[in-house]
Design goal:
This protein is mainly alpha-helical. 82% of the residues lie in helices and 0% in strands.
């Protein structure tokens, strides 16, 4: 499992309980309390930053490719 698969898996597992709570119990007070804080979107962002920092060379390549205007779109692919 590479870094990208791991980040997708961890982000999905983080968001899953929030989605299930919203799907099954949308009007329950616990669901409202769960969705009030920033934890719904903070988890996947934190996971992405941690995994990106674990592979610095990939992050450096992404930044260096996007700094060149003629190569910006190819750097994202």
């Amino acid at each position: 499992m590479d870094v990208y698969d791991l980040s997708f898996f961890l982000s999905t597992m983080w968001v899953g309980p929030f989605w299930i709570a919203m799907l099954l119990y949308p009007n329950h007070e616990m669901t409202h309390k769960l969705m009030q804080g920033p934890w719904f979107f903070f988890g996947p962002i934190a996971i992405w930053y941690i995994l990106s920092l674990s592979d610095i060379s990939g992050l450096v390549n992404l930044i260096s490719d996007t700094l060149d205007p003629s190569n910006a779109l190819q750097g994202l692919a």
